[in-house]
Amino acid sequence: MKDIVATKPTTSLTKGITLFQHILAQQTQYPDATGEFGGLMAQISLAAKLISRQLAQAGLIENVLGFTGEVNVQGEAVRHLDQYANETFIRVFKDTGLVCLLASEELEEPIALSNQCPVGSYALLVDPIDGSSNIDVNVSVASIFSVQKRGADSTSGLLQPGNAQVAAGYVLYGPNTMLVYSSGYGVHGFTLDPVVGEFLLSHPNMQIPTQGEYYSINEAYSPDWQPYVRDYIEHLKGAKNRGERPYSARYIGSLAADFHRTLLTGGIYLYPPTIDKPRGKLRLLYEAAPLAFIVEQAGGRASTGIERILDIQPQALHQRVPLVIGSPTEVTLAETYAQQGTSHS
Fold this sequence. Notes:
By secondary structure, this protein is α+β, with helices and mostly antiparallel strands. The chain is built from 7 helices and 17 strands.
């Protein structure tokens, strides 16, 4: 039977229902649903609970904080929690039959999690810990995930544009642990109740404001920005002088945490190209595309400044891109500056 993933927006969503109840309630609308997607999301929530528990013990037990001494495929030093989170996602899905292939920011190549991997089965792409440089100073980090239908080849079959994603989401480990996901019909947020051990619906049908009052960018890199990026940021800073609502800068340094605030309050997050990284820094498949899928489902926009993120055809598993994401008003204006800037360069 065909597994129907889509969850139609509904006014009957009740705060406090569990993630699994939410998915089951939606699947009852589809007689051909097999339940595989519900099982997949249940395992993602299990991985999130295990990682959240490990984070809660940071500083109290060994091998949670600090580095392992290894270097990952990205050329980055691996932290203990990077390794733990990556192994956790593999462990909770291995031999379940729910996910055929898993690709991770921490792995050079995707790995098979099932002996049988038919075309059309699910593949999971994951950034196990986004913002891991913040772990040792007790700042919010996250796991970001993307669900695809597997293509014909183990690697190139995962090189699908973001608009082909079946679902995407992230788990934010902060003052509380929150799972936000979309399967193509709205964005829903669930907060982990540590007493009952369940993710409970807390933010049904999330929508990003059309315009916000915050911008997020690492201004330490401003000397390396293209002129149009500096011009755009100066435009935002000058809003008060133009008699408009002023903008404030907010920057955590964990992509998903900065994005989550932008999703709730509106505004824009930018990681533009720099002199050292002219093609951008963020990974298309593990970071940019999943968050772009979510923001568009919530009424926002995501682009490189020139091209819609969800339209990009990936050329490599660990491809990097610039990212401009957030409320439609701010992103549209940022694209205008980018397009004018590149046309004059």
